[in-house]
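Encode chain A's predicted structure.
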Amino acid sequence: MKELVEVIAKALVENPDEVAVTESVKNDELVIELKVAPSDMGKVIGKQGRIAKAIRAVVKAAASREDKKVVVEIQ
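Encoded structure for chain A:
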């Protein structure tokens, strides 16, 4: 899942070298934290959060194939 989020985020931003993705497990859920440069935050979130919702939807679809619960946090 981490690699999937990283590939999507790097394709969206202008500073792909500043994209950082970390994974952790909390309360039986896989938590993926995505950090990007402040100037790229708008590109990752999108208008009214549409791109962020799309990223979460893709990751949830991939996770459901493996019967996992995944939360994507964008920072």
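The chain has one domain: 2-74.
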